[in-house]
Amino acid sequence: MNTALRTMIVIVVAVSTWTHGALAQEAGAAPAPVEAFYCNYQDGKDMDDLMKVAQRFSKWADNGHADYSAWILTPQFGQLADLPEVLWLGSNSSGDMMGKGLDAYLAEGGDIQKEFDKVVDCFAHVLASSIEVSAPDGPPQGGVVMFSQCAIDEGGDWSEAVAAHKQFSGAMRDMGTKGSNWMFFPMLGGPADMNLDYWSVTTFGSWTDYFSAYEVYVNGGGWQKQMDAMKGRANCAAGTASVWNVSLVRQRSN
Q1: What whole-number distance in Å separates Cα of residue 114 and Cα of residue 56?
Q2: Which of 28, 30, 42, 80 sits a CA distance of 20 to 30 A from 132?
């Protein structure tokens, strides 16, 4: 099995859609579908080539499919040989809107897809349900994103994990950091043999903001706040996080 599939965002586990719906009610926000394409560049192609096709896709989406947001991620910190060279993340406001958009793209986007295929070779397509934990600055633009592997403690439940992340993210904000947080629950398309329940996702507007938060976490008491919040609820200490550069392709219209 390709190692990259073991180290990225969404891994299939036995979590049902209605479980996420109940969790969302407790968390105060409905889950939204997030798709991810794991890709490597075709020979001789690079980010500039991909952005040209992405801009063509964005113009297509503007014409009747404006609900879709998309970002391109490239790895900065991680086991780089095991990670895809590029990741496409896309999100809709609801499953209904994602289904309509996919039907439309399959019917109308053949020429655009051929251009994508000339630039990248994508070897996996997976889906997660995303729950917002804390995003005071709104949806992510460009910048930085960090993914951490997390598991719910034995005897714990989903609502306690959400509460733990809300407590920790609030504490970090109170200490002056600028991260926004989500939880990605795996749904479709990945291997089933990884011991995690969800990914903790944190975005920053810049590397300056990221490493300011790093300093608070390491030397300013942040890790103690995390331990206090997570104790008996969840654990995000499986391996080290991967951190990625983020380029915004398009932001959906509200």
Answers
A1: 12
A2: 80
Per-residue pLDDT, 26: 45
- Stretches where the chain sits below pLDDT 50 are 1-27
Q: How many residues does the chain have?
A: 254
Tokens describing residue 67? 């609900």
Closest CA to 179 of 169, 164, 167: 169
Cβ atoms within 10 Å of 2's Cβ, excluding its own: 12
In this predicted structure, what is the pLDDT of residue 80? 85
What the chain holds in terms of domains, given with CATH numbers, is: 3-250 (3.30.70.100)
Distance from C-alpha of 252 to C-alpha of 254, rounded to nearest angstrom = 6
Please identify which residue in the block is written with the tokens 């095991």: 82
Structure tokens at 78: 């991680």
Residue with tokens 């180290």: 7
DSSP element (H, E) containing 35:
strand 32-41
Helix 110-119 to helix 47-62 angle, to the nearest 10 degrees? 170
Q: How far is CA 36 from CA 5, 107, 192, 223, in A?
A: 11, 20, 17, 29
Q: Give the dihedral sign, CA 74/80/85/89.
A: negative
Check: CB of residue 245 under 8 Å from CB of residue 205: no
Token pair belonging to 156: 């714990």
